[in-house]
Design goal:
Blueprint lengths: L1 H16 L2 E9 L2 E2 L4 E4 L5 E3 L5 E6 L4 E5 L6 E4 L9 E5 L4 H4 L16 H10 L17 E2 L2 E2 H9 L4 H6 L1 H14 L2 H7 L7 H9 L3 H8 L2 H21 L1
Parallel strand pairs: 1-8
Antiparallel strand pairs: 1-2, 1-5, 3-4, 3-6, 6-7, 9-10
Helix pairs in contact: 4-8, 6-9
InterPro entries: CarboxyPept-like_regulatory
Protein name: CarboxypepD_reg-like domain-containing protein
Length: 243
Amino acid sequence: MKIKLLSTLVFFSSQISFSQIIGGKVVSNNYTIPKVDIINANSKALTVSDANGRFSIAAKMDDTLTFIAKNYELKKIVINPFITDDTDLTIELTLKAEELKEVIVPKIEHKMTWLTKEEIEQIKLNSSRPKQDLRIIDYKESPQLFGIDFIRIGRQFNKLFKKDKATKSKSQNSNFKNFTKENCSQTYFLETLKLKSEEIEIFLIFCETDPKSKTIAEEKNILSIMDFLFNKNQEFKKLQISE
């Protein structure tokens, strides 16, 4: 009996002292993660997960495996009797909190240059009639709401494009505005988009500066134009806040 017990102890001791190959895959939200560093803290052995997130590393009982990947929280596991070379491990990593809070901010592609009062006066002096694209009226009578000069905003978006492009796209923009007014009621602008009545015309000018308005005008799809107006309204509101 003593011999049998001694043999059993020797067997388990040998299992604990000898290394075995531990394997598995590293994932996050059901996606495999390549190039994860796996370190055996006890033996200092190191390996890296492959393109499919698979890995294998030598380890023995009570060894600690550490999993390190950029943008993910560090993960540690301890080898126990239930983990053998036949076990296919699945190691789940968690994204770091700061990575989850990232917000993508759309980039403004065009640089804005405001017209000064003197430039406006010079344009009026050198023109036989007001320039329709700039919508210039008497400077002091420009309607403002909460400190925002909507006429100036309208002029600015028209200046984003060169005159030759503005001339070529004039008919398409006109079609866009006409199609929008025919299919979207005043209530849609006031209640759904939360625009003020004096903002509607400026908002449509703002929409026309987006090249996508040409495609919308050609397709004449009411669902597409309402989706387009909704998205542009969010950009328009952000512009008011930044102003």
